[in-house]
Specification:
This protein is 24% helix and 21% strand. By secondary structure, it is of the alpha+beta class. It has a single domain, classed as 3-Layer(aba) Sandwich (Glutaredoxin), CATH 3.40.30. The longest helix is centred in the N-terminal third of the chain and has 18 residues.
Length: 192
């Protein structure tokens, strides 16, 4: 299991435009359709990564909770399905049903969206305010497979609470850690 840190996109970056296929209901979602009254949380995940699997239930719980408070969430999978077919759209739809996602699970076939966000790993978290400016890019919490720390989502939750309460972005933001995104040949980013 390869451990890759997030690239830590600059705070204040405007949310990159995307229009991606939602594997749950076969619709398309663009940036404007996922904006909540207070902001948007975009998380790059995949079905097979142990770092995602370890925290997915708490991620879903937090996403549902903050959706009710005006911060919409979306999960995006950008993995190369030629090398990792378990992360393809059909398997994504099955996984979303199994885990009872109530938020879009989008497929980034071209990997252009991951590249625009400078995404590096799964999970990789990006929280944007209502002006579409990045206010958090960091880890969920310090729980990892095998380290026996409780899964709380405390660091992401603190960022979400700051956003809800119109406070400035957290000063200390630790990179997310997880499996590297499985890039198509020729798509490997220069920022890694």
């Amino acid at each position: 299991m390869s451990l890759t840190p997030s690239s830590m996109l600059d705070l204040g970056t405007k949310i990159p435009y995307f229009n991606l296929f939602n594997t749950i209901d076969n619709s398309f979602h663009d940036v404007n359709s996922i904006e909540g009254e207070k902001g948007a949380l975009i998380v790059f995940i995949c079905n097979h990564c142990p770092y995602v699997i370890h925290i997915i239930d708490k991620m879903i719980e937090i996403s549902k909770d903050y959706n009710k408070k005006g911060i919409k969430s979306v999960f995006i999978s950008s993995n190369n399905i030629e090398t990792h077919p378990q992360d393809g759209p059909i398997e994504m739809k099955k996984y979303a049903a199994k885990k009872d996602f109530s938020i879009p699970y989008l497929y980034d076939e071209s990997q252009e969206t991951a590249l625009k966000f400078k995404a590096a790993c799964t999970p990789d978290f990006y929280l944007f305010d209502s002006n579409q400016k990045l206010v958090y890019r960091g880890r969920f919490d310090d729980a990892r497979p095998g380290n026996e720390k409780p899964i709380t989502g405390s660091e992401l939750r603190n960022a979400l609470e700051n956003l809800l309460n119109d406070k400035p972005p957290l000063e200390k933001q630790m990179p997310s850690l997880g499996c590297n995104i499985k890039w198509k040949k020729g798509n490997e980013p220069k920022y890694l």
